[in-house]
Amino acid sequence: MRVYQTNEIKNIALLGSAGSGKTTLAESMLFGSGIIKRRGSVEAKNTVSDYFPVEQEYGYSVFPTVFHVEWNNKKLNIIDCPGSDDFVGGAITALNVTDQAVILINGQYGPEVGTQNNFRYTEKLKKPVIFLVNQLDSDKCDYDAVINTMKDIYGSKCVQIQYPVETGANFNEIIDVLLMKKYSWKAEGGMPIIEDIPEDQMEKAMELHRQLVEAAAENDDSLMEKFFEEEKLSEDELREGIRKGLVTRSIFPVFCVCAGEDKGVRRLMEFLGNVVPFVSEMPKIHNTRGEEVAPDAQGPTSLYFFKTGMEPHIGEVSYFKVMSGSVKSGDDLTNADRGSKERIGQLYACAGANRIAVDQLNAGDIGCTVKLKDVKTGNTLNGKDCEWRFDFIKYPNSKYSRAIKAVNSADTEKVMAALLKMRQEDPTWVVEQSKELRQTIVHGQGEFHLRTLKWRLENNEKLPVTFVEAKIPYRETITKQARADYRHKKQSGGAGQFGEVHLIVEPYAEGMPDPTVYKFNGQEFKMNIKSKEEIDLEWGGKLVFINSVVGGAIDLRFMPAILKGVLDCIEHGPLTGSYARDVRVVVYDGKMHPVDSNELSFTLAARHAFSQAFKAAGPKILEPIYDLEVYVPADYMGDVMSDLQGRRALIMGMDSEAGYQKLSAKIPLKELSSYSISLSSLTGGRASFTTKFSSYELVPNDLQTKLIEEHEAELANEEE
User: Fold this and answer.
1) What is the DSSP letter of 713?
2) Over the stretch 195-204, which tens digit does the pLDDT of each residue have?
3) What sign has the CA pseudo-torsion 161, 165, 169, 172?
C-alpha cells in the first residue's frame, strides 16, 4: 500500500441508530474498494466491523471499528460506530478524530432518537454532516415522508443530492441531481448502469437541481454572483460550493443507498472522495496548552492514541491519529503523559479485524500498532523536541450504575484488573472503588452497556460476577443549634486518661457571621474566638472549627486532637453512617489534668460530645439530586411525565427541540437507579436522557425514618 499525503486523506465517522445498517454499509464499501473479496453479513457473523465475540453474541456493534478504503487515489479512513445510545462513547471518540460525519437514516422509520443524539454531538463538535437514507428496498419505506420529517427537524439545510424513483421491492433506480443522471442496478447490485434522466422524472429532477445549485452558491460570493448571472453552475463549481457548505455546516447533503443490496454505495464513495473536505481544510485541533496544531507532515511528530482494542492471540492493539509530522516503523517516541520511551514496531492501516502493513503514516492519517509497552487510551507519543499533549475528547456523564462483586471472593483482584483493562477499550465504563459506600461501583451509559461488560468478564475472562444496586451516597447535616459536654476518664493503675470537652454545634452556611453569644435554657454563653479553621470536606460542604476556650481550661496543644475526634464523627454520621457536612463546631470550655490528659483522651471526649450534640441538633439526611433532561417524542410525553412524578421528580420545564420534546427535571439519584430501563420500556427505545449532579437536598421525613431503621438493622447484623 502506498504512502498517502495529508491532502489525500479523509477521515469519516459512520453514525446512525441501531439497525440503520452501518455495519452492512461498511461491508459494501470495503467490497467496492477491493479490500475484501466478498461481503459478510451481521446474520452470518462474518463482518469486518463486528468481529468481537460479544458483538456476535448480541448481533450489535459494541466498539467503534476503524477501516479504510482506497478510492480515486484518496484514502478514506472510516470509523463504523455503534448505534445504541449505550455505546455512545464510540461515536464521540470517532467524531473527535474524524472530519466528516455520515449519518445513516433507516428508511423504514426516518430520524430516530439515536439520529438526534448523533446530530447533537456533530453540532457540539462543529463537524460536517451527510445524511444517508438506507433500506430503500423495504416495503415500509416512505421516502418522501422521511425527507419531510428531516426538513422539519434540520430545516432547509437538508438538500437532496439523490432521490429514488421507487421504494420497496421494486427499488433499483436513483436520480442523481448533482450529476443529473439516472443510476440503476441489476438484482445483484454493485456497479451501476448510468443513463440520462427519463422524461417523466425531468421536472422533479430539475427542481431539486435548482435547489441544490442555490444552496451551493450561498457558500461562496463568486459562485453566488455567477448563479445570479447564469442561473447555473458547472459540476466542479457545485462540488466546490457543497464542500464549503459542509465545512460551515450550512448544507447537509442527502444521499440514497440500499447497503444490503450494494446499490448506491460506489456513488457515495465517489462523493466522499471528491467533495468531502480534506483534513487540511478543517479547523485546527488545540493541544492542552491551547496551541493550534496543524496537520503538517513536515511538522514535529505527534500521535494521539484514541482507542485500545484487546484482541485474542494479539493482545493490545493501539489506534492513533497522526496529529502532526509523520511516523515510520522503528521510530523512537516519548509518551508525554507517562514519561516512558516507546519504539514503534510495525505500522498498520486498519481494516477491522484485518490490518495492512504500511511503511509510513503522515499527518492527518489514522493507523494502529501492536506491542507497545506503556500506552493507554488518551496518551500522546511525541518525537524529539516536542512536548504536546491532547485531551479534546469529553465523554458524557454515566446514566446507570451497579455495584459489582466477584462470585468467588478470591477473584476480587482479578476482576479489578480486568475492569481497568476493559476501560481502556471503552472509557465510558467508569470504575469506582467507593470507600464511603464500601462497594466497587461500575458506571455506564445504560443497562445493556453494563450487561455487555458482565458478559465479557464471564465469557472472555472466566470471572463470574454479580451486580447489585449501588448504595446512595447520602449526607447528614443539622438544622438547629445544640450544646453537649463529655468527660473521658479512665484509670488503670499507672498513668490514666482524662479529657473534658464542652462544645456547641450549629448548621453552617457560606458567609454567616462569627458567633458572639449563644443561649441555651436561659443560660448565656459568650464567645471569645481564639482561632478558626474552615475545612473543605472532600465529599462536599464544610466543617468550620472554632476554638473559643478562655483561661487555659484546655491547652492549645490538645486542639488538633479535639478536631480529629470531630472529623472522625463527621466521616461516620450518627444517623446512617454517611458523611456529614455543613456544620460549625465551637469548643468553648473543658477541663484537663496535669498528668493524665493526652491527645487520645481529648479525641475520645470530642467524639462523644460531638455525637451527642449532633443528635440533639435536629439532624437531617440529605440526598443527591440530579438535573435530568429527557428527549422524548411528543406521543410519549404524558407517560414519561407521569413516570417522573412517581419518582419524586420536580418538572422544571418543557421545550421543543429538533422534532422532539425536551423535558427538564430535578430527580433524586435513588430514583434514577433503573430509569434507563423504564424509559426504554415506556417509549419503545425512542427516548434518551442526560443527567448531571445538581445539589444535596433534605429527604422527606418518612424516607429518613426508613433509612435510619435500615442502618440500625445493618449495624445489628454486623455485631452478630
Assistant:
1) H
2) 999 999 999 9
3) negative
The C-alpha atoms of residue 95 and residue 13 are separated, in whole angstroms, by 6
* 515-563 pLDDT, tens digit each: 999 999 999 999 999 999 999 999 989 999 999 998 889 999 999 999 9
| Band of pLDDT at residue 59, cut at 50, 70 and 90 | low
For residue 153, count CB atoms less than 10 angstroms from its CB and return exposed for 0-12, middle for 13-18, buried for 19 or more: middle
Contacts for 428 with CB less than 8 Å, ≥ 6 apart: 87, 88, 89, 395, 396, 398, 444, 445, 449
Model confidence pLDDT, tens digit, residues 178-196 = 999 999 999 888 899 999 9
Count of positions (residues) in the chain: 720
The CA distance from 706 to 699, in Å, is 11
pTM over 0.85: no
Query: Nearest Cα to 90, choosing from 55, 57, 58?
Result: 55
* Separation CA 699–CA 319 (nearest Å): 47
- Which domains are assigned to the chain? 6-202+251-281 (3.40.50.300), 295-382 (2.40.30.10), 400-471 (3.30.70.870), 476-618 (3.30.230.10), 626-696 (3.30.70.240)
Work out the pLDDT band at 580, boundaries 50, 70, 90: very high
